[in-house]
Amino acid sequence: MPRKLGETPIDQMPTFLKKLALVAGALAIPIIPFIIWGHDLQEAADAWQQSQSSPVVMAIVLFVLLAFDVFLPVPSSLVNTIAGAKLGILTGSLVCFGGLCAGAALGFGLAKMAGPAIKKRWLQDDDAMTLRQFADSWGVATLVITRPLPILAEAAVVLLGVQDLAWRKFWPPVLLANGGIAIAYAAFGQVAADHEWLVIALAISAGFPLLLTFLARKWLRARSQETPT
């Protein structure tokens, strides 16, 4: 097919190939620093692993980071992986579980109290609209589905808080989802630390959830456009 004036080779690619290229590129981004600085990063990770930081101090710091995730640009998946690597599966899971639950409760409670002001501050208009439609269909299951997704996890908590969801309906899905997330990432972190590929594990735990969030947002928005208002 002849190329149109001003059209690039990328423009001529079929839609599915564009999406495939986008996904491949997004998956490669977290690995690029390791390819370039892999040796130095691995040495830094080994030195960090051998440091004598107090486990209690480490647990407190990680808990606080997760508890204030709604206010801070903290990649919770990365924090959870570090917790497993530094504290082990059991302690790391408990710290992550407590921090994730505290953070979710804080965002939900503030949204219930402040209502529209919190919604306007923390929710983009597109996210608010698509999540509202999704929540209308899935109810409190929205909390479980969005829990592993950065940005959307906090957005769902705030949205349902603004909609004045009861605490008794909020806790079961949040406890269930946070428990699974905490155990999975803590185990991932400990296995990575034991086998000395922590740098790759941290890159994956930071990048992959962001990719999932990107894809989920596109899917939600496409779904909201197909759903009659």
Automatic annotation (TrEMBL):
Instruction: Write the record's keywords in alphabetical order, separated by commas.
Output: Membrane, Transmembrane, Transmembrane helix
Q: Which domain of life is it from?
A: Bacteria
Zinc recorded as keyword: no
A Pfam family it matches: VTT_dom
* TM annotation in the entry: 20-37, 57-75, 87-111, 138-162, 174-191, 197-216
**Domain VTT: from-to ranges:** 74-190
Write the protein's name. Answer: VTT domain-containing protein
Q: Which organism is it from?
A: Blastopirellula marina
